Amino acid sequence: MRDEQAHWQALHAQIDKLAQQLAQADSLSAEQAAATLASRAQQWAAAPPVAATDLLSVLVFGLGEHRYAFALEHVDEVLPLRQLTVLPGTPPFVRGIANVRGRILAVLDLACILERPPTGLAERTYLLVLQSAEMEFGLLVDRVLGVQQLARSAIQTQQAGLSGLARQLIIGISPEQWTVLDGARLLAEPSLCIEYHD
Known about the structure:
5 helices
């Protein structure tokens, strides 16, 4: 019984408070009322703050007409492609090898892996080096667009019209229309490991 009385008392107090607010609103001038409404509209329209744990730091880059992103944790470095040595007899996704500060890296064609039309080597092709504890290789990209913060919760993960490896490698699409790729999955993909023989 006491709980029910307390509930009704709280409800009456809330109604009284609302009545006071309405009375105050009636006493506002037209300018004050408009300013109050505008302030409330701004508060309600403001995007909710994004928790730090929800933010993903990504490197955004261009490949042909499309923009992609990898989580920074998988990116070792990005540098202009100085020289590429072609290896005959390798699968189409292997463009060759490159010497990066004394390390010989396989250079893969990301467009081919994602089943996109090949873009060819441009004058300003970049080498994006992905690295994990077990694997590292370079990917050819056309443009480096910088590091951005992306809310994980904002990534649209529903993918239609994709199949095979491309479907497995794509995490989703960001609100900016970047295709967010799974660097860990790409680095661990067994079909990309080849043995080269002369």
